Structures are given as structure tokens and as C-alpha cells.
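Quick check before the chapter quiz. The format below is the same one you will see on the exam, so make sure you can read both the input and the output lines.
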Amino acid sequence: MTEPTATAEQAQQQIAEEFAFFSDWTERYQYLIDLGKQLPAFDEACKIEDYRVHGCQSMVWLVPSGDASKMHFAAISDSAIVSGLIALVLRVYSDRPAAEIVATEPQFIHSIGLAKHLSPTRSNGLAAMLAKLKGYAAATLA
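Here is the expected output.
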């Protein structure tokens, strides 16, 4: 895994630059799958209903830890492409202050063309994952 970048905005910029290397969506999907394979090990004991992201066609679990000054997220999916999406989301949002997480819009989804190339069910799942993650961050600020 790469070292966390200084800000969520820089992470999004870096993602856009990486995806710009690929000329077509077959290569981009393969890269997403490869990113998903690099996710850190996930504690099987955390695969419980409380951490499940609803709205995803595949099974996704998202576990928050830390506090408002620095939140960490662990996540996993049973789908290769969704695991890649998780890897991107974690790069942008994990290990950041809760206020930055809440304030950061996921522009990388549009900048790399994901918005146009994900199926409606995957788009809904990605939106659900982002909503849950931001909800966790908002709760720590409350």
C-alpha cells in the first residue's frame, strides 16, 4: 500500500493521475481489481450486520476506528471490482480527521470516469459506502 497522502484532495489528484495512464476501461478495471487484492487483511470477526454496508449488491463491510482527530477505516468486499473501489475510497478517506472526511466530496469518481463506467448497482453501492463512512465521521464530530 502507498503511504497516506497529506490531504484527501491530494489523494484524489494522485488517483486521477494513476488512472490517466490507462488508455481503456479494460485496463482500468484490471487496475481496480489489482488494487482490491492489495487491501489489508480483514478481521473475519468484523463481518457482522452492524458493519455491513446496505445498498451494495455485493457484500461489503466497513469498520471505523480512531477518533475525530484521525479516523481509520477497514473494509472488505466479496467482489473483486468493489474491493478495488474500497481501496480507492480508503486512500481518500482513511487516516484523516473526521472534519476533513465529512467535508471531502469524492471528485475522483468523476475525474477518472467511474461515474460513467460503473453499473447502476455498483454506483448505488459506492454511494452507500461513502454515506456510511461519512456518517461514521459525522458521528464522531457530534
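If your answer matched, good. The chain has a mean pLDDT of 94.
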